[in-house]
Design goal:
By secondary structure, this protein is an alpha+beta fold. It has a domain of 383 residues: Amidase signature (AS) enzymes (Alpha-Beta Complex). It has 18 helices and 16 strands. A hairpin with a 5-residue loop joins strand 12 and strand 13. Helix 8 packs parallel to helix 9. The longest helix has 22 residues. The protein is globular, with a radius of gyration of 24 Å.
Amino acid sequence: MIAAILIPLLIQDSAPPRPALDDVRTAGRVIGLEFTDEELELMVRDVGRALSGFERLRAPHIDNSVVPATTFSPLLPGIGLRTWTPPETTITFERSALRPADLEDLAFADIPALAALVRAREVTCVELAELFLGRLERYDPELHFVIAYTRERALAQAAALDRELDEGVYRGILHGIPWGAKDLLAVAGTPTTWGAKPFEDQVLELDAAVVQKLDAAGAVLVAKLSLGALAMGDVWFGARTNNPWDVERGSSGSSAGPASATAAGCVPFAIGSETLGSIVSPSTECGNSSLRPTFGRVSRHGAMALSWTMDKLGPLCRSAQDAAIVFAAIQGPDGRDPTVYDLPFEWTPDADVTGWTIGVPKGAFEGERSKRAARVLEELEALGVGIVEVELPEYPVRAMLIVLHAEAAAAFDELTRSGHDDLLVRQGSGAWPNRFRVARLIPAVEYIRAQRLRTQLMLDMDRALAEVDVLVHPSFAAGVLTITNLTGHPTFVAPAGFTEEGRPWSISFTGHLFDEGRLVSLAHAWQRSTGYQDRHPTLAFGRSETTSGGSGGR
């Protein structure tokens, strides 16, 4: 433990010198411990040996893709599955298959509408790819959401999918539907920059598991989209990604490009990631309907690792229905991410939610957000649900985030030790370079203690949710975001209108572990009755007006 504190004090290329007694004393004080001189004398020799061992551990290169020999599972002994099985039904989507006079009218169409046109051969896969590539190119100079276009790949893929249709082959509802990938997902032959200057020229010659699954489903990748450097914020090495509702504001992050591009009608959907808010936060700012799945639902093979026990991949879309469609294509094991479970995902767009019990976290609907939040509860009650207050477990969850910080520092240890962290755009106290350095001072004992507290939190959270079907809450209220990222619970975030300043505002639906089907079924029923998801920015830049289905109105 003390040796871990001494590492940043004694790092050098040659074998480290034996630390002095005062070095060990100072290291102990950094972590709040005091030792007698006799204890320090005994410690000095062993600390020196440990430092030499650490040097040997650092010698081999470890790729970011290599996972630790320990795995995290949200399903602990004593936590059972509480997943919902909808009544057996055939899901159909009734949509017009008439080609519009102007293909630009399809910019904000949902996936079933685009799919109906493709299947009816009213619009070709190549035309859709060209449409969304053109919109990305048109709006990127203001919004800065593209890191790399995949035009050649996209058009070749779209042409092949059109030929399959000529031959009577239809892969399903995503056949020919364009999409964008957060640029922490590897795509062979294309830069995978992680949004960070030190990796600007990095090319990983593999396709991430979600890319492979979407390829197989017939979706067409049109661009690698921006993320805040190393998955924090909305500032990457090229620019700040901006918000299509107000270009003077950032999109938030770190799934910045996926949120901004989807909200701007420049891709029908995108895949992002979340470790601590990176899907929920930009979706709130940009007005997306997005699903952060249960930890262990989607393979992270080929995705940048930030925290092996907290990273999750999920879709950013325009509706719960679209999120369910995309999630069905990407979820499930691929044999390369040991944390992924093989469990069914079932949902229905016609769920009868009458009698469902909705939990509201104690204190979550208080304060300035109460009026807007109360309206959402009234809308849900109109669907026939019952609402009860839930008291969530109280833990020092902010302090427990040393789990994230220690794992992130380990994932980018070589970046820190090389000094190339100085190339990252953000260098403040809250930015990654400083956090990586500070994380070197986290004692191993405290990291393990935080993980043990995490186990208790997971068990207590399971008990807290035992009597409810879904938890509903403002997205950043009552510490739910931090708690559920530690426990692994799934959350669906959706637009719920606008603030007094005209900014999108969101509500979140949090479900039981691996119960995404019930989550999106409830969210879809609510969206169908309210229509918040149909509003989109005009892209006039400056302060955008709100439009719904192409007509004015808020």
